[in-house]
Design brief:
single chain, alpha+beta, Metallo-beta-lactamase, Chain A, seven-stranded mixed beta sheet, 8 helices, globular, binds zinc ion
Length: 284
């Protein structure tokens, strides 16, 4: 789908599974299981729908990837625990749309949790992690990088240093503090709640917008504002930040994109007679 100069599409970095109860927090299983059924391990299917944005601005070509999935570096045990799909999924899916790792110019990371930034690095021939995209710069909120370096015990398992330390060592990791326009029509906005340093990405052009909401609203099933995750550190802030985005999008033709949704990566929002948020899926 075109947004002004920007051609935007989803490229999956592969599916995985997380505990359904953790993904739906205080929502009873009897309710969430109807819309997002669990397997025999109580895990639910999730995707990693990265956003590929291509365009030319002032004669310069940009190939931007928002998030890059779980990556391929982890052990077989780790892969099995989260039922991670085959290694190499992101590279294969990028190749299908004509993109090689060396083509990526910028990787925007909404935060450094492993299911969003794990593909930032890959193992080199000596077994050490190196940047996956050799010609790319990487961008994250300054708050999140600080939290990744000194993680609270509660989130330590999600911040794995091999996903970002090699980026810093190579001098390709940039930080932004708060809201910013990254390129004309591509901006980031802080959206705390899930964690302090989460940012969402907004692509705007040709009279419409797409909001890539990351873990603020991880799947299309989470559009009811109070359906927060057990993983969210500050649930009240999360609900407030969700309401801001939902209210801005509802009743417009602008799209909401859900990184972790297994089958509905984007849609428009409206409200029904009871005031519940309703998503109309849109193919991007
Ligand atoms: Zn996530």
């Amino acid at each position: 789908m075109q947004f002004g100069p920007w051609d935007v599409q989803f490229v999956s970095a592969g599916s995985f599974r997380l505990d359904g109860g953790a993904m739906y927090g205080t929502v009873p299983k009897a309710v969430w299981n109807r819309v997002h059924p669990a397997d025999t391990d109580n895990q639910i299917l999730m995707d990693t729908q990265c956003l590929l944005i291509r365009g030319e601005v002032d004669g310069k070509k940009h190939v931007i990837l928002v998030e890059n999935g779980n990556g391929d570096k982890e052990s077989d045990d780790f892969m099995a625990r989260f039922k991670l799909a085959t290694r190499g999924t992101l590279d294969a899916n990028l190749a299908k749309v004509g993109v090689q790792p060396g083509d990526i110019t910028l990787c925007i990371l909404t935060h450094l949790h492993f299911d969003h930034a794990g593909g930032s690095t890959r193992l080199g021939s000596d077994g050490q992690a190196v940047p996956s995209f050799p010609n790319a710069r990487y961008l994250v909120q300054v708050q999140d990088l600080a939290d990744a370096k000194k993680p609270h015990l509660r989130v330590k398992a999600s911040y794995l240093p091999p996903n970002w330390e090699p980026l810093e060592a190579a001098g390709v990791l940039d930080t932004v503090n708060g809201a910013a326009e990254v390129l004309p029509g591509i901006s980031v906005r802080p959206a705390p709640g899930h964690i302090k340093g989460l940012q969402i990405v907004v692509v705007e052009g040709g009279g419409r917008k797409l909001f890539f909401v990351s873990d603020l609203i991880p799947t299309s099933r989470h559009i009811q504002p109070a359906w927060c995750m057990g993983y969210d550190l500050d649930v009240v802030t999360c609900v407030d930040e969700r309401l801001k985005v939902l209210q801005e999008l509802t009743g417009t033709a602008d799209l909401c994109a859900f990184y972790h949704d297994p089958d509905t990566p984007a849609g428009t929002l409206s409200r029904d007679a009871k005031g519940r948020y309703v998503l109309t899926p849109v193919a991007v």
